[in-house]
Design a protein that fits this description.
- This protein has one domain.
- The protein is 12% helix and 37% strand.
- Helix 1 crosses helix 2.
- It has three helices and 31 strands.
Length: 312
């Protein structure tokens, strides 16, 4: 059995959730949501550094695999305290929001997205050739309808096995968070990339206090037995299946990490891969979040927060 907790984090700093690099591009775009894979990585890091005095690469791998066994993560979406900004492909264009409040992509970007331009400097004080780079990010503050600055938050859910243990230590959910002993696993996390700019610092804002304006989009009680409903947008990447009819988009999805849980590879060309981002997971095609599926399907949530069909 699984226990589900709805979680809201407040962004303490801007947030950059990168795509795999575009060859030749000087712009690093951000995703407008946080994949479950990023939550898995951040919690693996936090738990490992709590349990291990001087953690090594093998400690991260070991605890990362135990986290996969005991946790599942939804994708997390921007939340302004009233509206969770889920993407949805309409007949006209991609929009963000819910049935009661929806905005266009351009409105979403004006409200929540910023960018930073940087360049490397030579010893003589001039910019290095071809070093100009632009980083896109989710702002940690936004202006509301009254032009007042408000905190940007992200909302999603985490599932935990009722028998969950990490390194033989019981993991429990309560109204304050997710705990190993008296250590709150989700009190604060570092998500995404560009940490050299201070990006990605999030703080726990609330547990099980989201005021959903309509039906709970994170309604699945058992993440390994979910119902994907016809006519409704998906709230994660869904692995491509040739029999699925849809309205939306498809992308080739991959990721970086210490290891790929699907493979045991830890070396490449004789060199160790035991460092962050050293292994790139095998890319596969997925329907993107917001895609509307045009038939009911049964599926499951994977360790990375992605979903896949489990029947035809």
């Amino acid at each position: 059995m699984w226990e589900k907790v709805d979680v809201v984090f407040k962004l303490k700093s801007p947030l950059h959730i990168g795509y795999m690099p575009f060859k030749g591009s000087v712009v690093s775009p951000t995703r407008y949501y946080v994949p479950g894979r990023n939550l898995w990585g951040a919690i693996t890091k936090r738990v490992t550094e709590y349990l291990c005095e001087k953690p090594k690469a093998d400690d991260y791998k070991k605890i990362g695999k135990q986290t996969i066994e005991n946790f599942r993560f939804s994708y997390f979406y921007l939340y302004d305290g009233r509206t969770i900004y889920f993407p949805r492909y309409t007949d006209e264009e991609l929009k963000y929001g819910n049935n009661k409040k929806e905005i266009t992509k351009s409105e979403f970007e004006r409200r929540f997205i910023g960018s930073l331009i940087s360049t490397a400097i030579d010893s003589n004080g001039t910019a290095k050739d071809e070093s100009l780079h632009e980083i896109e990010f989710i702002n940690n503050r936004f202006k509301d309808a009254n032009k007042e600055l408000k905190d940007v938050k992200i909302a999603g859910c985490i599932w935990l096995k009722e028998t969950a243990k990490i390194e033989n230590k019981k993991v429990i959910i309560n109204d304050e968070g997710i705990f190993i002993g008296d250590f709150n696993v989700i009190r604060e996390l570092i998500l995404g990339g560009e940490s050299k700019y201070g990006f990605g610092h999030v703080l726990l804002d609330s547990v099980n206090k989201i005021n959903f304006p309509d039906l709970d989009p994170f309604k699945w009680k058992n993440p390994i037995q979910i119902n994907i409903e016809s006519g409704k947008p998906i709230i994660c990447h869904l692995k491509y299946h040739k029999n699925i009819k849809s309205r939306g988009d498809i992308e080739l999805l991959a990721g970086r990490g210490y290891f790929d849980p699907k493979r045991n590879e830890d070396k490449k060309d004789g060199e160790s891969l035991s460092k962050p981002g050293a292994i790139i997971s095998k890319p596969d095609y997925y329907f993107t979040p917001g895609t509307v599926i045009l038939k009911n399907w049964k599926g499951r949530i994977n360790w990375s927060g992605t979903a896949q069909i489990i029947d035809d």
